[in-house]
Amino acid sequence: MRLEPIEAPGVARRVLPPALAIVATFVVAAVLAMIAGGDPLRVFGEIVKGAVGSKFALLETLNRATPLIFTGLAVAVAFRAKLWNIGAEAQLYAGAVVTVVLGTGALTLPAPVLLPLIGVAAALAGALVLLVPAILKTRFGVDEVVTTLLFNFIFLLFVSYLLEGPLKDPMGMGWPKSPRLIDEARLPRIVEGLRLHWGFALALIAAVAVWVIQTRTTLGFEMRAVGQNAEAARFAGMPVMSVILKTALLSGGLAALAGFSEVSGLKGSLTLDLSPGYGYTGIVVAMLALLHPLGVVVAALFVAAIFVGADSMSRAVGVPTYLADIMLATALLLMVLAILLTKFRVRRD
User: Can you give the pTM of this predicted structure?
Assistant: First the structure.
């Protein structure tokens, strides 16, 4: 057997494989739920109820989706240009560190000035973190999958050092956490008294902005061209190296905004467990969205609903919450296969 490229895939070819991948994911989850002793229909019902069954559940889902939108956009932007950014976790923490450094009293400015300043500085920090692997890739041909992945572990160790040293809260009773942000550095709540903050609105704005960049600007065209065929783009006179570096800056900045929104909007301080893997989950989100920036919002809400709903489901039904992890892993593997089948058909020699 061999794979034969499809010149112009039709609508059915582009839509059917991803749809079947989602259906197959739920079939696998249903089988595993039965093995665990649960009724699949009740399991899925409890997941939906736990994710959107009340105002509190819905807002928790939106809160969980906020960093996933940012990291999903970061991955989608990079992957579109064939820059394999696996280091969104490091970029997220870079944004969080800058947020804490600038937001704990280092700057005494009113909130309308301080918040945008911190957000821009956090995005710049994440951009610089990804810029290093991008330069190594373009200048020396170093595989960015390896460098961005290793940066995750390096940066987590760096954050651990900061929380045990320069950024440790002297009032934290020995716990490795940073001091709390001042009020002027906190993102306000969308509705007073509820946990949903303006970081969610910022994530939606970022998704629309990325969509505009990719579909309405020269940079977006160049990113797509480089992603399709870098050699052809170079032959056509496009500055391939510059496009990759710009893509890295945009991708790293988006991932860092996840750290900014989590610290400034939700947590109020930095801890080593700030992210339960948002950077890695962003890869799943981006692939489920087929790298479409507006689709990232839908995919992030879907993934967040599964995680939030799985916690409630586990308490109600007794099926382990690991079912959510298995569902997402299965969805990622099947979606990668689906994307392959949208571009190639299988031929028997």
Answer: 0.93
